[in-house]
């Protein structure tokens, strides 16, 4: 987990606002469900690219029925239900350098997918499945997803990409 003296310059909310902004630029509406998955994949790939030693943001990620969810972020946009989030809530400020590059890559790779496809993808992956292993398919759960499993899984994908 996060070291006591480690300071992070981004929050899950910053990442979310960036994706809302990206979606508005491309006129591609984004729902809370899709946003959750994009923010999760950003976190996962950042963690893997830093060998599990640096987190993109400090917020907790839980394995909910519909995939990985950052609870505080979910409640921030809950009012939109399954509909699109107001694009005026997006912002690109504060995200620069390697982090911006990563978020743009995540958008290019995952942003074209709809929320249900992203949910199915997350459901097929070990970090989410492991966190939900003792729950029925439609049973509520809020188990925190394990950073070491996330790091291991996405690092292995990264290695396969470069073989």
Low-pLDDT segments, ≥5 res: 1-7
Reported for the largest beta sheet, the result is: 2 strands, antiparallel
> What is the number of independent domains?
1
Name the overall outline.
globular
Record the strand order, biggest sheet: 1-2
Helix content: 40-55%
Number of helices: 7
How does the helix and strand content classify structurally?
mainly alpha
SSE ordering: HHEEHHHHH
What can you see in these coordinates?
- The protein is mainly α.
- The protein has one domain (12-161).
- Helix content is 51%, strand content 4%.
- The chain has a two-stranded antiparallel sheet.
- Helix 2 (32-49) packs across helix 5 (115-123).
- The longest helix has 18 residues, at 32-49.
Helix-strand layout with pairing:
Elements: H1 12-25, H2 32-49, E1 62-64, E2 67-69, H3 71-77, H4 97-110, H5 115-123, H6 126-131, H7 147-161
Helix pairs in contact: 1-2, 2-4, 2-5, 2-7
Give a concise summary:
The chain has 163 residues and is mainly alpha-helical.
Keywords:
mainly alpha
């Amino acid at each position: 987990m996060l070291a006591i003296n480690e300071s992070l310059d981004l929050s899950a909310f910053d990442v979310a606002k960036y994706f809302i902004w990206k979606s508005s630029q491309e006129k591609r509406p984004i729902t809370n469900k899709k946003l959750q998955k994009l923010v999760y994949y950003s976190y996962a790939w950042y963690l893997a690219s830093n060998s599990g030693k640096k987190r993109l943001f400090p917020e907790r990620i839980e394995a909910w029925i519909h995939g990985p969810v950052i609870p505080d972020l979910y409640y921030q946009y809950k009012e939109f239900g399954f509909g699109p989030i107001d694009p005026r809530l997006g912002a690109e400020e504060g995200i620069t350098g390697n982090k911006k590059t990563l978020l743009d890559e995540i958008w290019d790779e995952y942003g074209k997918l709809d929320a249900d496809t992203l949910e199915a993808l997350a459901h097929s992956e070990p970090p989410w499945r492991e966190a939900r292993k003792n729950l029925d398919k439609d049973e509520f759960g809020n188990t925190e997803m394990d950073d070491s499993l996330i790091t291991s899984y996405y690092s292995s994908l990264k290695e396969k990409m470069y073989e």
